[in-house]
Structure formats: structure tokens, C-alpha cells
Specification:
alpha/beta, two-stranded antiparallel sheet, 10 helices, 47% helix, 12% strand
Length: 255
């Protein structure tokens, strides 16, 4: 029998390891509990040819460290440098780097907005932490069949959030399309965090001309600050200019 390999990611090590032990008692599941070292565990497992199938992530993960520690048999060492990543970013990162790994979010309470964000990031499910072990096992097996699992009470709220996000993105895309090609270049530079002088040097323009372009961008987008313009650009799928060369466009992502 091929066993399903599950990684449990939770700030509370006792909970993570206890849940992993409970899951591993099933004949078709192999599980490991991890605290802050989840990404390292995933990378090491993949390198060793033991890629995880499903990752369970705590919805209330405060800050997940990207460690330099090494994986051990049932848990993961927490030592090493710390780069902080929140739970939604972890889901998105795993979806991007290891798309074959399904992720399920474990939550203390129902939250339509956060559940929608998790789904947008690539999660396959949102499950209550107090659900039965059999329910959790059903979700784990289900997401491997490409099913999406949400509590029935959350469905209406999540659909409302996703619809609003799609409309918000559509409106943002329409505003970005009103920009001239040069203004779009300037906007991409703004998304990359470049100031007026750096934009001028990159585009071979005078700072005064760049200032005018930036003012035009803000006006056409209907915002009053660079920060707001960048947020709108990201919702529309506009990526930052590649500081090493060409422009990078992030298409096909939900807002």
C-alpha cells in the first residue's frame, strides 16, 4: 500500500506532533509534525525523493521561520536563520514551488475572508481544528482527488469574497488599461519600489518628466499615493520591472 505523506505545520509543536502521530496510526498515512521549519522540511524531503503529498497549515500561524535547521525523522529542527513568512504566503509559496503538494488550512474558527484568501493562494481546503479525525482523513484523501473542501457554513461567504475580489481585479485591470505604454512602464517601476530618480535613470528621462508621468498614473488610477497605485497594480496582475533587465508580468493570478 502506498502511504499518503502528510506534513503538519503549526506553531505549537505538541499539537503538530500529536496530530501527526494520530494520522500516522492510519494504515495509509505517513505523517510528520513541524513547527517553524516547514519549508526546509519540504525541500529536504523533495531532495531525498520523499516528497510530501499533503500539507496541513495552521490558519493562525503567526510567523513561520524559513530555517537553516535540518529535518529529522518525526520533527524538524528550529535552529538556523529566520526569515518570516505568514501562513497564506507559505501556501502560495508551496503552490508555486511544489504544485503537486496539496495544502489544507486548519482553523480555530470560520472566517470567509481568510478562507477565500487561502483558496486564492492555492489551498485545497479549510477545515475546523475541532473536526473529527475521520473528517480530516476524508479531506486529506479528497484533496488528492483534486477536490476542494470547505465547511458548508462558509460556502456563501467565501463565494461572496471571491466574487468581490474578481470584480475588484476587473475594475483595476480596466484602470491600468487606460495608461499609455510609457505610463505602464513607470507603474512597473513603482511596483518594483524605484524612486523618481531611479526611474528617470532607468527610462532615460528627466526627473521632471518622470514626476509628470507619476502624477498622470495616480490621476488615471484614481489614487492619491504611490502605495495605493502599487496595490491597485498588483490586483490587476501588473508585476514589477525586472531590475536585471526585462519587465516581468504576473498573469493568471487571482487578486
Amino acid at each position: 500500500m502506498v502511504r499518503i505523506r502528510v506534513l503538519v505545520v503549526d506553531d505549537h509543536r505538541i499539537f503538530a506532533e500529536s496530530l501527526a502521530a494520530a494520522l500516522a496510526a492510519e494504515p495509509d498515512v505517513a505523517a510528520a509534525g513541524s513547527g517553524p521549519a516547514a519549508l526546509r522540511c519540504l525541500e529536504r524531503a523533495a531532495a531525498d525523493g520523499r516528497r510530501f503529498d499533503v500539507m496541513l497549515v495552521d490558519a493562525d500561524l503567526g510567523a513561520l521561520a524559513v530555517p537553516g535547521g535540518r529535518a529529522v525523522a518525526r520533527a524538524v529542527s528550529d535552529n538556523g536563520e529566520e526569515g518570516l513568512v505568514d501562513g497564506i504566503s507559505l501556501v502560495a509559496g508551496v503552490r508555486s514551488g511544489q504544485p503537486a503538494v496539496r495544502t489544507v488550512v486548519l482553523a480555530e474558527k470560520d472566517d470567509p475572508r481568510r478562507a477565500a484568501l487561502a483558496l486564492q493562494a492555492g489551498a485545497s481546503g479549510w477545515v475546523a481544528k475541532d473536526c473529527s479525525l475521520q473528517r480530516l482523513l476524508a479531506v486529506i484523501r479528497g484533496v488528492l482527488r483534486d477536490e476542494t473542501h470547505l465547511p458548508p457554513a462558509l460556502l456563501t461567504g467565501v463565494l461572496r469574497e471571491l466574487t468581490a475580489a474578481r470584480k475588484h481585479r476587473t475594475d483595476s485591470e480596466r484602470l491600468v488599461e487606460s495608461l499609455t505604454p510609457r505610463e505602464r512602464e513607470v507603474l512597473r517601476c513603482m511596483v518594483a519600489g524605484l524612486g523618481r530618480k531611479a526611474v528617470a535613470e532607468r527610462l532615460f528621462l528627466s526627473p521632471h518628466t518622470v514626476r509628470t508621468h507619476m502624477q498622470n498614473v495616480l490621476g488615471k488610477l484614481g489614487v492619491h499615493s504611490t502605495l495605493a497605485a502599487v496595490a491597485l497594480a498588483r490586483r490587476a496582475g501588473v508585476g514589477p520591472v525586472d531590475l536585471a533587465g526585462d519587465v516581468v508580468e504576473r498573469g493568471g493570478q487571482l487578486a
